[in-house]
Amino acid sequence: MAKITLDTLAHSYLADPKSPEDFALQELNHDWADGEAYALLGPSGCGKSTLLNIISGLLIPSHGRVLFDGKDVTHLPTADRNIAQVFQFPVVYDTMTVRENLAFPLKNRKLPQSEISDRVARVAKSIAMEDVLDRRAAGLTADAKQKISLGRGMVRDDVNALLFDEPLTVIDPHMKWELRTQLKQLHHDFGHTMIYVTHDQTEALTFADKVVVMYDGRVVQVGTPDELFERPAHTFVGYFIGSPGMNLFDARIEGTTAEIAGTRVDLGAGYRTKGGATKIGVRPEYICLGASGIPARVTRVEDVGRHKIIRLDMDGHQVAAIAGEGESVPDGGTHVQFAERGVNVYENEWRVPPEGGDGPLHTAREAA
């Protein structure tokens, strides 16, 4: 296992980049702590696979360095970085048995047979493949083959990091939850440094200790799932995390109040802005309907079982709110109100903290 440091890292696929827009990966400085599980989350084309390939050694960055435990590995080939990588499509040896697939990395290192047998048995139990150890991989499902790929990465105890590049993309939906759970348990049992690339927020939030959200070639926030949900550092994080995502309202901020759609709203704290474009961000979980507030009209109600998603029109602006399954929903005209602790203020798309600093984190489950 290793601490991975990215030092002024940036990359362009152009031979002579002239501007920030020419870079697929904007300059990044970050430490990945030894033994933690990270998710790289973002839409297609945001730079997450580029970053993973730089860490793994499949790509040499245009600028900056990659360090493992302080050692510069920027120009080392993948084989010399002592990492394991699991790709989107399972990579197994079909002519070998499950046991032989799992043992292959250990045999290459000429470990004693007794140690190989012990490690294979332990990993096979962790991935629930003890009963098929002597079956050839050729006859197994894609789910089972991907479990072999995961296990082959876990069987070594000397790897600096385990890298996963959208490993559940080809897995049947009903199996994804099981494999995510097993991955989390494997991290708990083995303690490897793990970096998991995905565009699926559920995968990222359920797997990782810290989520690295990427947008347009840059890292816009690194945080725990609660931090990303409650205090998105950028409007993209608010929009991308959550279902539905955060509501964003153009607003004019004056101290502890904001004007939205011609209505004054109490923010519960003061905010200092610098004259840029300002917005208010409020998640659907923190929007209430009542007799006062910003006028709005209910246009649709979606009952998703555990709660209802209420769609509203607020002076031409589409708004989403969430209500409990048993809560009544007004028919037609109503007013929108914000729970104060659920309000985030943004200037030029970046979050502005309240004067006096942020208080303790609350979760939307506590907001009701």
Automatic annotation (TrEMBL):
<dbReference type="InterPro" id="IPR047641">
    <property type="entry name" value="ABC_transpr_MalK/UgpC-like"/>
</dbReference>
<keyword id="KW-0472">Membrane</keyword>
<dbReference type="InterPro" id="IPR040582">
    <property type="entry name" value="OB_MalK-like"/>
</dbReference>
<dbReference type="GO" id="GO:0015408">
    <property type="term" value="F:ABC-type ferric iron transporter activity"/>
</dbReference>
<dbReference type="Pfam" id="PF17912">
    <property type="entry name" value="OB_MalK"/>
</dbReference>
<dbReference type="GO" id="GO:0055052">
    <property type="term" value="C:ATP-binding cassette (ABC) transporter complex, substrate-binding subunit-containing"/>
</dbReference>
<dbReference type="InterPro" id="IPR015853">
    <property type="entry name" value="ABC_transpr_FbpC"/>
</dbReference>
<dbReference type="GO" id="GO:0005524">
    <property type="term" value="F:ATP binding"/>
</dbReference>
<dbReference type="Pfam" id="PF00005">
    <property type="entry name" value="ABC_tran"/>
</dbReference>
<dbReference type="InterPro" id="IPR012340">
    <property type="entry name" value="NA-bd_OB-fold"/>
</dbReference>
<dbReference type="InterPro" id="IPR003593">
    <property type="entry name" value="AAA+_ATPase"/>
</dbReference>
<feature type="domain" description="ABC transporter">
    <location>
        <begin position="4"/>
        <end position="241"/>
    </location>
</feature>
<dbReference type="GO" id="GO:0016887">
    <property type="term" value="F:ATP hydrolysis activity"/>
</dbReference>
<keyword id="KW-0813">Transport</keyword>
<keyword id="KW-0547">Nucleotide-binding</keyword>
<comment type="similarity">
    <text>Belongs to the ABC transporter superfamily.</text>
</comment>
<keyword id="KW-1003">Cell membrane</keyword>
<dbReference type="InterPro" id="IPR027417">
    <property type="entry name" value="P-loop_NTPase"/>
</dbReference>
<dbReference type="InterPro" id="IPR003439">
    <property type="entry name" value="ABC_transporter-like_ATP-bd"/>
</dbReference>
<keyword id="KW-0067">ATP-binding</keyword>
<dbReference type="InterPro" id="IPR008995">
    <property type="entry name" value="Mo/tungstate-bd_C_term_dom"/>
</dbReference>
<protein>
    <submittedName>
        <fullName>Carbohydrate ABC transporter ATP-binding protein (CUT1 family)</fullName>
    </submittedName>
</protein>
